[in-house]
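Form 7-S
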Amino acid sequence: MDRDAFREALLAVMERKVHPAWPAFTSGRVARELLHVHLEQEYACYVRDFPVMVGRAYVQCPIPAVRRDLAENLFEEETGGLVAGRPHPELFLDYPRGLGFDLERFEAVELLPGTAHYRATLDRWIDAGWEPATCVVTIFVEGTAHERSLFSDDAPARPEPPLSEHPLVKHYGLPLEHLALTKAHRQVEGDHRLAAWRMVLDHVPAKRRGLCVEAMEACLEAWITYRDEVAAACGV
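Output:
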């Protein structure tokens, strides 16, 4: 497939990265005593290990320009040295900390079957070469259903309401000072999204594009199952 068809195939996957249960989480309909399930599964599935995932794509890549973008992403995720000031996985734990949850639970999370399958799917494709690894880590995992807005002014951008309207603040009483990760993501989001698509569209060879789309489709299918099980566990 040519470059335009490749981009469209990837965007088509991302536009389906939407789960019908998500409004229950953003509107406060998930019981507070079950919200920790969502946070634990997300943390243990990929948040805790995300810097390592980026690193695994990095070490497989022979292209200096791609490695530089991956290295910058890795440095920020692992250290927060560019924006956040602290490692992003560590900042994630500010959410449950601010909600008064027991952080010891996050040290030994038992993955739900769907979560384990999603993680195994991510690992399988991350180990399949730098091209699918970079697609999966920087576009699928980090991206949203609003990726098309990077290429078209007519496509809706990802909403960024005031921090006081963040669901954890509005519905669960999370103090604003515990939104450091959200603030950091907003600061680096534009650069990270553009870098992700630049790496993939400019450097993945034509003969590997089909494999990348296959990887993205597999991750989407596993992600839906993961979100289905988390939603059920949270009473949705």
